[in-house]
Design brief:
Elements: E1 11-15, H1 27-35, E2 38-41, H2 44-53, E3 63-65, H3 71-83, E4 87-91, H4 104-112, E5 117-120, H5 125-133, E6 140-145, H6 150-160, E7 166-171, H7 176-187, E8 192-197, E9 205-210, H8 211-221, E10 227-231, H9 236-252, H10 257-268, H11 272-284
Parallel strand pairs: 1-4, 1-5, 2-3, 2-4, 6-7
Antiparallel strand pairs: 7-10, 8-9, 8-10
The chain binds S-adenosylmethionine.
């Protein structure tokens, strides 16, 4: 038996569930699912199946269906259980609740009502993809699903174009090729990207290339399954940082710090204060 029955404090327990392989669940998640007074789930069937696989008995507990859009009634019912001092475990269909999944409105309502909100952390496709893609992970921005309409999707890319970190998208296989083509157009055809498909499952695949190469490659092979797309940050930022430094060094040879900073900030269309502190730093060297 992989689970234990443990006494749980009253509160809401967000339980992360596997994103592909059923055994990717933590022992603590199983303990919480075995021990919670009340279980709620985005997809009651898949949660029942997971409990069955791991031999966690439901006993006389029912699994309550909850989706943020299922609205206030179910949310109020769950809140009432917490008022009554009960523990409530909630799982979304796969991965971590609230990550492109329901749970936000529930977490908000429960914390506003002053009850405990805690978690049994575990799998999420974002972190799984980042950990194997080979792109920088010092900073990343989770975009999630972009809208499916072309112009809205392109606006979505525009909005994150200059984010100084790896961009992480979820995408459906039906739209992957168009999405990569739009990304190539808006973010730059030669940006490095990685497509992670069917993570933790039998047909797991990681394909790397520039955006334009990946679009062509998937157009040729076709694509099925669940997908995370990661895009490296634009290199423009790095080279222009170098350019700014070089321009400042030159300007400092004949100008005061303030004038050099003003001139260079204007020339590159960047924040004056940042350039000023860089100029002070360079002057000090
Ligand atoms: N809550 C989940 C999480 O923590 O990752 C995400 C749920 S969201 C509704 C489903 C999307 O996550 C899929 O369409 C896909 O983009 C991504 N995803 C989930 N499982 C995946 C897997 N095994 N491989 C690749 N992508 C996955």
């Amino acid at each position: 038996m992989n689970h234990q029955f443990v006494p749980l404090k009253a509160g809401l327990y967000f339980v992360a569930t596997p994103i592909g392989t059923a055994r990717d669940i933590t022992l603590r998640a199983l303990d919480i699912l075995a021990s919670a007074d009340v279980i709620a789930a985005e997809d009651t069937r898949s949660l029942r199946r997971l409990l069955e696989i791991h031999g966690v008995p439901l006993k006389d507990r029912q699994v309550i269906a909850y989706h943020d859009h299922s609205g206030e009634n179910v949310r109020n019912r769950l809140l009432q259980y917490l008022e009554d001092g009960k523990s409530v475990a909630y799982a979304s269909e796969a991965g971590t609740p609230l990550i492109a999944d329901p749970g936000y409105h529930l977490a908000k309502a429960v914390s506003e009502a002053g009850h405990l909100v805690t978690s049994a952390p575990g799998p999420s496709a974002i972190v799984t993809a980042l950990s194997i893609a080979g792109l920088p992970t010092d900073a990343f921005f989770f975009v999630g699903f972009l809208p499916s309409a072309k112009s809205a999707r392109r606006n979505g890319f525009e909005a994150v174009k200059d984010v100084p970190g790896t961009l992480v998208f979820y995408e459906s296989p039906k739209r992957l090729v168009q999405m990569l083509e739009d990304a190539a157009d808006v973010l730059g055809a030669t940006r490095d990207a990685v497509v992670c498909r069917e993570l933790t499952k039998k047909f797991e695949e990681v394909r790397r290339g520039t955006l334009v190469e990946l679009a062509a490659s998937f157009a040729e092979t076709g694509v099925k399954g669940e997908i995370v797309v990661l895009v490296d940050r634009g290199q423009g930022d790095e080279s222009s940082a170098e350019d700014i430094e070089t321009a400042l060094e030159k300007a400092l040879q004949s100008m005061t710090v303030r004038d050099a900073a003003d001139t260079v900030a204007k020339a590159f269309g960047v924040n004056k204060r940042k350039v000023y502190s860089l100029a002070l730093e360079l002057k000090g060297k």
